[in-house]
Design brief:
Blueprint (H helix, E strand, L loop, with lengths): L1 H82 L9 H6 L15 H8 L9 H37 L3 H8 L3 H9 L2 H9 L6 H19 L4
């Protein structure tokens, strides 16, 4: 009788263990599915955020290309002016007329970093598998910010030269500067030592290579995002 009871109890325990194992396996499967769904959801969030960063960088690339073209055009004009610094009348009138705005033109780079800042402040960075990508992304925005700062410094130095010119000429010369005589428009500020120093040294504040490096970095990040290499 005792053996039968032991056997019955043994069957009950085995049945209980089987049922328990089914429950445990079910819990683990549920947790695994939940984890997979959560990871996929997070990855989708990362992908959406990266698309916003990509669009932002594409806009920044257009801005830097525009700023570079504008800056290089001005440098070509100043190179011509330096060759005739003491006699600007030797420069063709139509050339100076075409590029008259280089005297007071302001240079800047409109860098948009809103999407990148949102990404940095989020918890999504932990889901970026390639940590080198994060470093390269940070460096790229740093390069854009560097050019932005240098162009601002360039424009400020030019402004200082023009302010110095205006504060050291009399009203008659100022009126002459503001009339429609193109040669006078160039010659008068070039006679000022501060503005002349800018014409000779302003091009050292930023180089073409810096523009090219920044564009290469931006293009590389855009390509990596488009291929989801992050």
């Amino acid at each position: 009788m005792g053996k039968k009871i032991d056997k019955i109890l043994s069957w009950g325990i085995m049945k209980y263990l089987r049922e328990l194992s089914v429950v445990i396996i079910g819990v683990f499967v549920t947790l695994w599915i939940t984890s997979v769904i959560s990871d996929n959801a997070k990855q989708n969030e990362v992908d959406r955020m990266m698309k916003l960063v990509q669009t932002e960088l594409e806009e920044n690339l257009q801005s830097i290309e525009w700023s570079q073209r504008k800056w290089e055009t001005e440098q070509r004009v100043y190179q011509l002016i330096r060759q005739h610094i003491s006699h600007v009348e030797a420069i063709p009138l139509d050339t100076l007329e075409t590029y008259r705005k280089v005297i007071g033109d302001i240079h800047s780079l409109a860098v948009n970093a809103d999407s990148y800042e949102v990404f940095k402040s989020s918890l999504l960075t932990q889901y970026i598998k390639d940590k080198d990508f994060l470093r390269a992304l940070s460096q790229t925005y740093g390069s854009l910010g560097g050019i932005q700062s240098k162009l601002l410094r360039y424009s400020n130095q030019k402004g200082d030269g023009l302010n110095h010119t205006m504060s050291h000429i009399d009203k008659k010369t100022l009126d002459k500067w503001m009339n429609n005589d193109v040669y006078s428009f160039f010659r008068i500020p070039l006679e000022d030592n501060v503005f002349r120093a800018f014409v000779y040294g302003g091009n050292t504040l930023i180089s073409v290579d810096e523009f090219e490096v920044a564009k290469k970095e931006v293009t590389s990040i855009i390509d990596r995002i488009s291929k989801k290499k992050y």
